Fold:
Amino acid sequence: MSKIEIIRVEPLELPHDIVWYISGKHHISMKDFYVYIHETKGVMYVNKCVPEKDIEKIIEIATFPGRYILDDETESGKFMDYVYEAYGYPAYESIQNYHDWMLRQQDEQRAREKVQSVIPSIEKMINAGMIDEYMIHEAYKAGSDKKGKTFKNICGFSTIYTYCLGYLAGSGALREKHSPEDSGNVVDYYYGITEMLEHIDIQEMPRIYEYLKELYFSEGGEV
Structure:
């Protein structure tokens, strides 16, 4: 759980950059200020008139480790409705923005740790000549031709297509006669995978991507 420093202020005591941000974005006067959480600094500026019990609940919701805080059927969702009614949309949005930011930090850290853990294996595959650069290049080009944005709009379709190609090969979805069991060693196995990739119709990559997106990124799925 992230730590948030609480700073109680009168509206006119707010730092100038926060005054500019709140008034410029929400077009409100400082007399209507109640709550603002500075994401990168981990500081919550709160109007001195806000009761302590509400401050504690705001911290609890903003740092909630789960994905959803706005479900009307949950305690957090009901409290967020209360925040909207009592303190207005700027306070409501600030809590939601901090929660979203915190989850992004967690996701990035999780991804960073996973990638770092497999880099030695990737380097071994590269050094052993297990990478079919022609196939990767074609997947990259096919993704570059796709219009629109990816699910979270973090990377382009060229990267997504390349990932999907590697995922399908590594998961065994493209496996024909080759497997670790019938190969003399791991190098032979990956050369077998490379041979299989040569028979994939690259025009099928858009369909494969849509299938994986539906499978792993549907609204009912776990992100």
Observations:
- Residues 135 and 197 are 7 Å apart (CA to CA).
- The two ends are 19 Å apart (CA to CA).
- Residues 5-101 form one domain.
